[in-house]
Amino acid sequence: MGLSASRASGVGNNLKHCTLWKADRSPACRAVMMALDALDLNINEVDVNMDKGEHRSPEMIVMNPLQTLPILKDRNLILNDSNAIATYMATRYWSPHASKLLPSDPGARAMIDQFMFFNSNVLYPRYKEAAHPILYKNCRYVPPNTMCDIQCAYADLEKMLQGRMFIGGSSPSMGDIMLIATVSTLNILVPIDQIEFPRVSSWVHRMSEEMFYTTANKKGLCEFARRLGELTGVQSTKD
Ligand SMILES: N[C@@H](CCC(=O)N[C@@H](CS)C(=O)NCC(=O)O)C(=O)O
Hints:
Layout lengths: L1 E2 L9 E10 L4 H13 L1 E7 L10 H6 L7 E4 L2 E3 L2 H11 L5 H4 L4 H31 L7 H17 L13 H16 L8 H11 L2 H6 L1 H15 L7
Helix pairs in contact: 1-3, 1-7, 5-6, 5-7, 7-10
Glutathione binds next to helix 1 and helix 3.
């Protein structure tokens, strides 16, 4: 476990009393890292090696009995859900980008929440179902029924993206950020068919051109793809 090299540009708001424990391979952690970069907030980051079980050490369990990452500590407050962490940081600390990423208008905000709930209720559990047996249980492939569930989630997202460049309008919102972390990872496990899911494909492409995607998603996604390739013997072309 160790302090990670800073991804920060150095020009943003420095919040040295906040610490994020994270693993770049984890989509939930990358979602928070992208949110922080999009908001231009700089905090301490600690790399946790999940393969060595560091997230299950006694000092981590005190902070998060669920034994998952990410974990955010802001003085006495400890949060362990990526969606809660990202929205907390956007509303608690000043950023010139916060109102665009997470609008205060109730209708606009509810639309973003709706996508974020789709991420944590539908996409994320399917990611876990596909990835965990490979990462931790010697499984070598995504079982056909899990693959089918992921294709169904792509089909739902395809309908949800109708008429939208991004979830909240013409620029990425916090909802786009939380979703792209999971969808870009699912894309490695079950590649998104461009013909079947054209809106999802072009949204993924648009998101991959954002600066926060480059600074906070790309490296961990490559790490995930490399690890998956080592374990399954199949190299992804999607990262
Ligand atoms: N709802 C949580 C889920 C976090 C989660 O499941 N994180 C995974 C990594 S992506 C984890 O820590 N898994 C524990 C493990 O792999 O042992 C969030 O969105 O933050």
